[in-house]
């Protein structure tokens, strides 16, 4: 198996094992533990040592992993890569049970800017975190992943909606409750969760208190296309970047100070204790730096690469792109630019990335949104403004972003991994003569 094929096989396995941010962070934690990374508890004293590697988890949905390098931190700074663990989805409401015409349904909320039409007529699994009180009265939590089709949102037949192909709109409150089963009496959803926990070997549950659960598409990630040109999966935005960053960090040596941060809640604005607009990354880096002057000098010598998927030019909708900025799948990572700082790229950080790509023999592309369209954003500008670090926004070109199933090129992820691995090992990320 070639390096690219092996990389993609591992990527598909990661995507399938990570239906929620909680599961993604758990998979990353296990990888880091196997590689010798040491867990740090934010409630305890830290003693980090040069040449060793560590990680910090908050809320079980955000993670910061780093090599504590052997070079002088305040002279070399950190080489950072950022991504996010969350994706648009349908989350189960706190009191979700609906019984209508003999069908048990669960009410859902739309998390993030989901493309809703593709959610209809899919085999839906259910996963997330359940909090409960055990038989001893302790508060506990556990992850569940019901990775079989337990729900569906059936479309209305076209015979009953003749405008379905020309003018259909979706009302999330009315149209998205998920069909779970048939019953004349209804069910208690928390009782179903208690049964699921028992099937997982957790048989001391007294009361299910609350949960954060999401429906997801059961269809596995796949390499597809006549020549295997594409990878199709749920949650490519942005677990693809989490995986690429993780693999690059694990492959890099421990000479330089390198950091991978994967935040939750990007899809809803990042304003949380574990989002990029929260204090997690800064808190971790300040504790590693120790003294204030070390922190200030280290940040001035640091750089962040925010990795989040880019919009590939769709052959059926090419007019949605600026004519000179239509990224192609399998043609290299994309530098994302926006003069209004929706992306944090500037000419200095993009120039360094272009040189990195050239040194690795990897093509590079640019994206600028049409001047008459609004631009999305990433954790890049948020992180840059929060800690004052020079930042670049890049990503792998993708189709159908925010759909239940997205599409990317099967060669782009490995190419970006190669570039990020080399970035992590740079002796200097900035030209000191310019400061």
TrEMBL record:
GO cellular component, one term: cytoplasm
Coiled-coil ranges from the UniProt annotation: none
Record-level GO BP terms: proteolysis
E.C. code: 3.4.11.-
Entry-linked InterPro entries: Peptidase_M18, Peptidase_M18_dom2
Keyword Protease tagged: yes
One Pfam family from the record: Peptidase_M18
Names of required cofactors: Zn(2+)
Listed GO MF terms: aminopeptidase activity; metallopeptidase activity; zinc ion binding
Family matches, as Gene3D superfamilies: Aminopeptidase i, Domain 2, Zn peptidases
Sorted UniProt keywords: Aminopeptidase, Hydrolase, Metal-binding, Metalloprotease, Protease, Zinc
CDD domains the record matches: M18_DAP (cd05658)
Class of the enzyme per the UniProt entry, highest EC level: hydrolase
NCBIfam families: PRK02813.1
Family: Belongs to the peptidase M18 family.
Protein name, entry field: M18 family aminopeptidase
Organism annotation: Zhongshania aliphaticivorans
Gene it is expressed from: apeB
């Amino acid at each position: 198996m070639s390096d690219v094929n092996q990389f993609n096989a591992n990527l598909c396995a990661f995507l399938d094992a990570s239906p929620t941010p909680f599961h993604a962070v758990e998979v990353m934690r296990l990888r880091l533990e196997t590689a010798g990374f040491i867990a740090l508890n934010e409630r305890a004293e830290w003693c980090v040592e040069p040449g060793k590697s560590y990680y910090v988890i908050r809320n079980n949905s955000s993670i910061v992993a780093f090599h504590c390098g052997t070079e002088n931190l305040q002279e070399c700074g950190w080489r950072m890569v950022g991504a996010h663990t969350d994706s648009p989805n349908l989350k189960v409401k706190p009191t979700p049970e609906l019984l209508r015409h003999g069908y048990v349904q669960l009410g859902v909320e739309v998390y993030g800017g989901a493309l809703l039409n593709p959610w209809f007529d899919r085999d839906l699994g259910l996963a997330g975190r359940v909090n409960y009180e055990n038989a001893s009265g302790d508060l506990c939590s556990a992850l569940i992943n019901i990775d079989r089709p337990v729900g569906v949102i059936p479309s209305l037949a076209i015979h009953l909606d003749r405008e379905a192909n020309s003018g259909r709109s979706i009302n999330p409150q009315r149209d998205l409750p998920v069909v779970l089963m048939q019953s004349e009496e209804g069910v208690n959803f928390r009782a179903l969760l208690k049964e699921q926990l028992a099937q997982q070997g957790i048989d001391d549950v007294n009361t299910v208190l609350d949960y954060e659960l999401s429906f997801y598409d059961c269809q596995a990630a796949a390499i597809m296309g006549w020549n295997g040109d594409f990878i199709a999966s749920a949650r490519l935005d942005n677990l693809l970047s989490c995986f690429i960053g993780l693999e690059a960090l694990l492959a890099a040596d421990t000479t330089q100070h390198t950091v991978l941060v994967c935040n939750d809640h990007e899809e809803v604005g990042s304003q949380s204790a574990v989002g990029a607009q929260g204090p997690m990354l800064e808190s971790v880096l300040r504790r590693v730096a120790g003294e204030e002057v070390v922190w200030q000098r280290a940040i001035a010598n640091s750089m962040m690469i925010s990795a989040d998927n880019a919009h590939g030019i769709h052959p059926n909708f090419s007019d949605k792109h600026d004519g000179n900025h239509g990224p192609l799948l399998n043609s290299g990572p994309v530098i994302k630019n926006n003069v209004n700082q929706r992306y944090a790229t500037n000419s200095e950080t993009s120039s360094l990335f272009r040189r990195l790509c050239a040194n690795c023999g990897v093509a590079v592309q640019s994206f600028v949104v049409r001047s008459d369209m609004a631009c999305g954003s990433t954790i890049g500008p948020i992180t840059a403004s929060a800690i004052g670090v020079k930042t670049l926004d890049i990503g792998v070109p993708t189709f159908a972003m925010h759909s239940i199933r997205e599409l990317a090129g099967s060669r782009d992820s490995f190419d970006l991994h190669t570039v990020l691995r080399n970035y992590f090992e740079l002796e200097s990320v900035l030209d000191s003569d310019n400061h």
